[in-house]
Design goal:
Number of helices: 28
Radius of gyration: 39 Å
Shape: elongated
Largest sheet: 10 strands, mixed
Structural class: alpha/beta
Length: 970
């Protein structure tokens, strides 16, 4: 049994080499981070990093910033995206690249116009009472304000970049460059004006591109309508073709009915109606109805028809019907032909498609395919029927003002009532389905025939850049040449480009870059004149896009007669703006290159910025403006639900930074799999803070243990003990993993292995085993020097590896150790010698830790049963039946490994009552107590304590260390 230690003859605490560091345990990040940011600003950090790499002849890497919209404070989605970009920038610097990253903003477009209109209404002013020049100035000032707010927010996150030379799509130079890019499409013949149905937002009073539309569930009225046959086979005479639609308001625009040659149709005679109904059905016995055979029963159920008999098969070719409103107004007394169309199926409805060529893409295509050219215009820009539309002139399809803005107006009910009056309604109902909405106003949109400007997708272009390819072909070729992270992004954007329509680029709004061109009134074609274009671009360069709207036409046209030309005052699709950013950010600037190495945005940008940039660049340069694309998912709350202010489940970055620091947001972003949707909330952030605290304590311990470390005490590899060789092997192993992970933008594969290394290999193994040596060995002892040499190597690498992810903490740690040195951010990853690789030591320590886990388990039982306290009270007897496990301890001090005062390893299975773990076969532990006395300095219990008469309460090792300490101090 161990004897109680005698009363110490002196206080030995001053002789123990405890860790000392000013690096605090409590981070105080909300206070510390602004100090570090001020230091980086004073050092002009980003430009210092670039200058350092350029002096070294580093290769150039370009990350082109997808511009956030300058509207509102930053949100957690911004934080994820900008932090990921900063991970890329900083990691590329770390890997030895010169990195060009210019932050930018998207400033034009509807959301800002809406805000200004709201502000004007609040002041009692209407938009039409404000000049276009004043309105655009208000928009510009609004965008400039929020750019400043967002810039401060992004910088507070620690994002480095060329903030002094940021770009904005509303800068005069940017607007000039955007217009110059537009002129390239005009010159190459890819631009055309067409009258076709486009997605139209009556609330916003503008056309929308596919990328500006999202789909939400919506309840629509459904109607089955009879179109009496006027021309056709004998079987069709006296019958009515039945159509089904969810847009009753389009019936006045009907000009045809589409059918499919692949569908079987029949004439059905109504024989009996359902009885006991609360209303009188609109169908009657004797009615003859033409529907698809497969859908006949569905139609009869809707119409309350109890029994109908199929008279005969019908051939729809050449049939003509009359319009349902033909007898209500002469305006509708025209033939409604049946047209074969590939878009028609018998999956739902009646097997026929009501065709209004001014209000549907398929309707438009099939109408033109059959030789028709006249497209009726029935709905005006405000979503109301034109006055010339008989029976319904002026009625609203969609409300655009007041509390009902965005709701369907009286048009649908009015059309249904007229169908009843005309005797043409067969049935009606309601259906919930997916319906297109503007992603900005969230209001429903309609298809509406309008004259707009488009860029052709499928016409061969005979320019040097496209070489006879169409824009679609060039874009698809570019997709194949692009690397995608994750790889699934390629199929997503490819499928979108394969099926997308021509690019609608005109908008009928005020705040944006103009389609700055003139159209010949005689030929209806754009004016092609390089001198005119030059004058336009120069004026915009000097005065901004306002020059186009404010200056007289003669300023641009020169010798051309202004009376002959129409000035186009539409503005460009904002996706064309942002799709052109590569032209004025990557070209004609020093120390950058085109194309960019990487574009990084959310996965929704496959239909947005990635695609608009692809199309703009492919149309003008024949390839994409990027070599690779990286996408991330969306941010969700902790339950996986979309964040919403109304739900109260949002995470405010400003609050998180104020309470926890930006470093916690950065660590969260590093730990998630960003390719998927990511959850965030109080619980998750607390878990992240806990992980940060453990990591910080690891760094703090190293700083303390390395106090006054000098390279002169470093130990060569061949003199290292086995444990140190194993830790060096792990550093070598991690170095390869970290480099590969950064190269593949897998930040989770950096932080998680490094966190595991800090917790398992450093804190739980290396520090725990070497704590006694670090505290109690003489300063020149080989074991202590070796441990500090390895700690120095680990510190050098950890502060580099983690600098891109948690730069504030790594900067604080680095400058704590080297207060006079340069910023940690200027470093590259230290070279890790190949000689550190040691697979044999890795295999050895895997076995050692298996045995150690059994010893630890045995001692935990003793402590729980209060038979033993600290591990230093133990002298475990370890029985090892596995020769391989036993051999792993050759050259090791088992007691040191087990963190006990004494230990014995013996061959064999051990007694039946010994402690065992089922997962470690062949190891049994007898948890014996240590024999001897407790050392007053190291607390180890050893028989040798008191052997040195100079220090009767110390072990021999501690006595020698204290003697040396005393001698050094006289």
């Amino acid at each position: 049994m161990a004897d109680d230690a005698p009363t110490p003859t002196r206080d030995y605490r001053e002789t123990v080499f405890l860790p000392e560091t000013p690096f605090p345990m409590r981070a105080g990040l909300p206070q510390k981070e602004p100090q570090i940011l001020a230091k980086w600003d004073a050092e002009n950090l980003y430009h210092a990093m670039r200058a350092d790499r350029q002096r070294a002849g580093a290769p150039l890497f370009v990350l082109h910033d997808g511009p956030p919209y300058a509207n509102g404070a930053i949100h957690v989605g911004h934080c994820l995206q900008k932090t990921l970009k900063d991970f890329v920038v900083r990691s590329k610097f770390l890997l030895g690249f010169d990195v060009d990253y210019v932050p930018g903003w998207d400033c034009h477009g509807l959301p800002i116009e809406w805000k200004i209109e709201e502000e004007l209404r609040a002041k009692g002013r209407r938009k039409d009472e404000v000049s276009k020049a004043e309105f655009r100035t208000l928009c510009r000032d609004y965008a400039a304000h929020w750019m400043g707010v967002q810039k401060d927010g992004f910088k507070r996150l620690g994002v480095v970049g060329d903030w002094e030379n940021r770009y904005a799509t509303m800068d005069y130079s940017s607007e000039a460059a955007i217009v110059a890019e537009f002129h390239k499409f005009v010159a190459s013949g890819q631009l055309y004006r067409g009258s076709k149905p486009v997605m139209w937002s009556p609330v916003e009073r503008t056309a929308l591109a596919d990328a500006e539309v999202e789909y939400h569930d919506h309840v629509s009225p459904t109607i089955w309508v009879k179109f009496p046959v006027t021309e056709g086979s004998d079987a069709a005479r006296g019958a009515s073709v039945v159509i089904w639609t969810t847009t009753p308001w389009t019936i006045p625009a009907n000009r045809a009915i589409s059918y499919s040659d692949a569908v079987d149709y029949g004439v059905y005679l109504v024989e009996e109606m359902e009885t006991g109904l609360e209303f009188e059905p609109w169908a009657k016995p004797g009615d003859r109805l033409i529907v698809a055979d497969k859908l006949a029963d569905d139609v009869f159920t809707a119409a309350k028809i109890a029994k109908a008999r199929r008279v005969e098969r019908i051939d729809c070719q050449g049939m003509v019907c009359e319009h349902p409103f033909a007898y209500l107004d002469a305006h509708y007394r025209f033939g409604v032909p049946l047209l074969a169309g590939d878009h028609v199926t018998d999956d739902a409805g009646t097997g026929f498609v009501h065709t209004a060529p001014g209000h549907g893409a398929d309707d438009y295509v099939v109408w033109l395919a059959h030789g028709h050219r006249e497209i009726p215009e029935t709905v005006d820009p405000d979503g109301a029927y034109y006055e010339h539309v008989a029976l319904f002139g002026g009625l609203k399809v969609l409300e655009t003002e007041g509390k009902k803005a965005g709701k369907f107006g009286p048009a649908n009910p009015a059309v249904i009532e007229k169908l009843i009056e005309a005797g043409r309604l067969l049935a009606r109902g309601r259906m919930e389905h997916s319906y297109p909405h503007s992603w900005r106003s969230k209001a429903p949109v309609i298809f509406r025939n309008t004259p707009q400007w488009f860029i052709r997708m499928d016409e061969p272009v005979d320019t040097r850049e496209l070489g006879g390819r169409s824009l679609r072909e060039a874009a698809l070729d570019a997709i194949e040449a692009t690397t995608f992270y994750p790889a699934a992004g390629k199929n997503r954007i490819r499928s979108m480009v394969e099926s997308r329509p021509d690019w609608l680029i005109s908008r009928q709004r005020a705040w944006g870059a103009p389609l700055a061109m003139f159209v010949d009134k005689e030929t209806n074609q754009p004016l092609h004149d390089d001198e005119v274009n030059r004058r336009i671009v120069e004026a915009i360069q000097a005065e901004g896009a306002d020059a186009w709207f404010n200056r007289p036409d003669s300023d641009f046209l020169g010798e051309h007669d202004p009376q002959r030309f129409e000035k186009v005052e539409d503005i460009l699709d904002v996706w064309f703006d942002s799709g052109s950013t590569h032209a004025f950010t990557l070209e004609n600037r020093a120390h950058t290159k085109w194309p960019a190495d990487l574009y990084l945005e959310g996965s929704d940008q496959h239909r947005g910025w990635f695609q608009s940039s692809l199309l703009e660049s492919s149309g003008t340069r024949g390839r994409a403006p990027y070599d690779a694309i990286l996408t991330h998912g969306f941010t969700m709350d902790e339950n996986g639900e979309k964040m919403s202010k109304s739900k109260g489940n949002t995470v405010d970055p400003e609050i998180v930074i104020r309470e926890n620091g930006a470093e916690i947001i950065r660590l969260w972003a590093a730990m998630i799999d960003y390719a998927d949707d990511s959850r965030i909330g109080k619980t998750i952030l607390q878990t992240t803070s806990d992980a940060y605290r453990k990591l910080r304590n690891t760094v703090r311990y190293m700083l303390g243990a390395l106090a006054d470390f000098s390279p002169d005490e470093a130990v060569e590899l061949d003199q290292m003990p086995p444990l140190e060789r194993f830790i060096l092997h792990r550093l070598w192993e991690l170095d390869g993993q970290v480099r590969a992970a950064y190269d593949a933008y897998l930040f989770q594969d950096v932080i998680r292995p490094v966190l595991d290394f800090c917790q398992e290999d450093l804190s739980a193994l290396f520090f725990d085993i070497r704590r006694d040596s670090l505290y109690c060995d003489q300063p020149d002892a080989l074991r202590r020097r070796a441990a500090r040499t390895v700690m120095d190597a680990a510190f050098e690498r950890l502060t580099a590896w983690l600098a891109p992810l948690i730069p504030f903490t790594m900067e604080e740690a680095w400058t704590t150790r080297y207060p006079q040195g340069h910023s940690n951010c200027l470093r590259t990853i230290p070279i890790t010698p190949a000689e550190w690789r040691n697979d044999a030591e890795a295999a050895r320590w895997a076995k050692v830790q298996q045995v150690t886990s059994v010893v630890t388990g045995a001692l935990e039982v003793e402590r729980r049963e209060k038979r033993m306290g600290a591990a230093l009270e133990a002298a475990p007897k370890v029985h090892v039946a596995d020769a391989g496990l036993l051999a792993a301890f050759e050259g090791l001090d088992a007691a040191e490994v087990f963190r006990t005062s004494q230990a014995t390893l013996v061959t064999g299975d051990g007694p039946a009552g010994a402690f065992r773990l089922s997962e470690v076969a062949g190891v049994a532990v007898e948890p014996l107590r240590a024999e001897g006395r407790k050392c007053a300095r190291s607390w180890r219990i050893l028989p040798e304590v008191g052997s040195d008469p100079r220090y009767p309460d110390l072990s021999l090792r501690d006595a020698e260390a204290v003697a040396a300490w005393d001698a050094a101090r006289g």
